[in-house]
């Protein structure tokens, strides 16, 4: 019996054999060899290939067999120790943490039921398909062939020359860009507003979503041009609206077909400068009639001025927002059509009653639009290039 206990004690003192696991490294990868080692050991531990308590190969052996510098291996093991994947024991080696929780399973988990009570139905987003190299006739797709790339680089250099902010930015957008936007709108569109009325958004579509979220109760009626902008329709439907299509003719939306009274729409969405997709303009008589209708029926008008910069045969008509005298018009603009859709910067000019609500919702959505992008765009516009 005594010899048996001695044998057990002797067995416990014997060092555990090193595992024969050797990671596969890619020499031409952009990921450093050290990080490849760390990632390989992490995955092996979490998948169960390296079990809790297993002894890892020594740094000398790994370095020799993988043909890498030993310091690379030591640094990788130190990172794994710091992350508690492995434990280093002086004089014994490095071992997989006994308390690690494995994610390995013998069979893949069953798929979630489509009827799970925490799943909501989400419509398929209406996304523009990728371009083809052939000649296309799609609307609203700007060409970058003549884009002033050198000035664009200079604008980004100006933005990135500043230290990155050590805190979140202003929710409504960088004051400098907001001032520049209002100066531009006053100069080119005759729309004079305070820079504080501007909310910078991640594209016009986010602005439309914020407006819908701030104004619509489930079941609210929204009037849209027919045919009209499908992404706007989807945005309003997503927030519980019932859509009332209003026909469009050569003078734009047929405003006279908007119903009166409490059963009528609480919000009207229009593209008056360049109707989407027919291209007509909302005539001055109908612009004035729409504003009068909105005042009579206590309704809101969303003016999407998505590409008013492009004109070929006529001077621009004044935007609805510049004719508004009762705070009924929310003006939505974007830089996607002039610069690039990939920029994802737009703006909303809203009356004070709505502006604060949009700002709160913007904060809940994504806090604020990218600060470096805003600074670069401000520099680009101030240089007169836009």
Describe this structure as you would to a colleague.
Residues 1-14 have low confidence and may be disordered. The radius of gyration is 31 Å and the shape is elongated. With 386 residues, it is an alpha/beta fold. It has helices at 2-13, 33-47, 59-66, 70-82, 149-160, 175-189, 204-215, 230-238, 284-296, 320-323, 352-366, 371-382, and strands at residues 86-89, 93-96, 198-201, 221-226, 242-249, 252-253, 267-270, 300-304, 329-334, 346-349. The longest helix is centred in the first third of the chain and has 15 residues, at 33-47. Helix 3 crosses helix 4 (70-82) and helix 7 (204-215) packs across helix 11. It contains twelve helices and ten strands. A hairpin with a 2-residue loop joins strand 5 and strand 6 (252-253). The strands form two sheets. Strands 3-10-9-8-7-4-5-6 form an eight-stranded mixed β-sheet, with helices on both faces. It has a two-stranded antiparallel ribbon with strand order 1-2. It has two domains: 11-96, Winged helix-like DNA-binding domain superfamily/Winged helix DNA-binding domain (Arc Repressor Mutant, subunit A, Orthogonal Bundle); 149-161 and 168-382, Aspartate Aminotransferase, domain 2, CATH 3.40.640.
């Amino acid at each position: 019996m005594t010899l048996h206990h001695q044998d057990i004690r002797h067995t416990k003192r014997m060092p555990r054999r090193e595992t024969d696991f050797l990671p596969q490294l890619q020499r031409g990868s952009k990921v450093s060899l050290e990080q490849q080692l760390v990632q390989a050991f992490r995955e092996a531990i979490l998948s169960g290939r390296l079990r809790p308590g297993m002894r890892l190969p020594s740094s000398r052996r790994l370095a020799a067999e993988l043909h890498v510098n030993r310091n690379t291996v030591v640094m990788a093991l130190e990172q794994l120790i710091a992350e508690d994947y492995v434990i280093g024991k002086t004089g014994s080696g490095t071992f997989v943490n006994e308390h690690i929780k494995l994610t390995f399973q013998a069979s893949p988990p069953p798929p979630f039921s489509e009827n799970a009570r925490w799943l909501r139905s989400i419509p398929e987003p209406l996304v523009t398909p990728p371009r083809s190299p052939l000649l296309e006739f799609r609307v609203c797709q700007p060409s970058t062939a003549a884009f002033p790339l050198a000035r664009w680089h200079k604008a980004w250099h100006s933005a990135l020359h500043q230290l990155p902010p050590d805190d979140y930015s202003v929710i409504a957008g960088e004051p400098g860009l907001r001032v520049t936007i209002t100066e531009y709108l006053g100069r080119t569109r005759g729309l004079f507003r305070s820079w504080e009325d501007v909310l910078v958004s991640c594209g016009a579509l986010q602005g439309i979503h914020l407006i819908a979220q701030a104004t619509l109760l489930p079941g609210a009626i929204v009037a849209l041009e027919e045919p009209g902008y499908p992404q706007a329709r989807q945005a309003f439907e997503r927030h519980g609206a019932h859509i009332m299509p209003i026909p469009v003719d050569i003078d734009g939306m047929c405003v006279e077909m908007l119903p009166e009274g409490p059963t009528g729409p609480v919000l009207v969405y229009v593209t008056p400068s360049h109707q989407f997709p027919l291209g007509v303009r909302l005539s001055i008589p109908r612009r004035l009639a729409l504003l009068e209708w909105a005042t009579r029926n206590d309704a809101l008008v969303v003016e999407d001025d998505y590409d008013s910069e492009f004109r070929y045969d006529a001077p621009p008509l004044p935007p609805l927002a510049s004719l508004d005298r009762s705070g009924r018009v929310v003006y939505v603009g974007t830089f996607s059509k002039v610069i690039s859709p990939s920029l994802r910067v737009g703006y909303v000019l809203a009356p004070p009653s709505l502006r604060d609500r949009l700002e709160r919702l913007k904060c809940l959505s994504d806090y604020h639009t990218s600060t470096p992008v805003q600074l670069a765009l401000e520099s680009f516009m101030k240089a007169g290039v836009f």
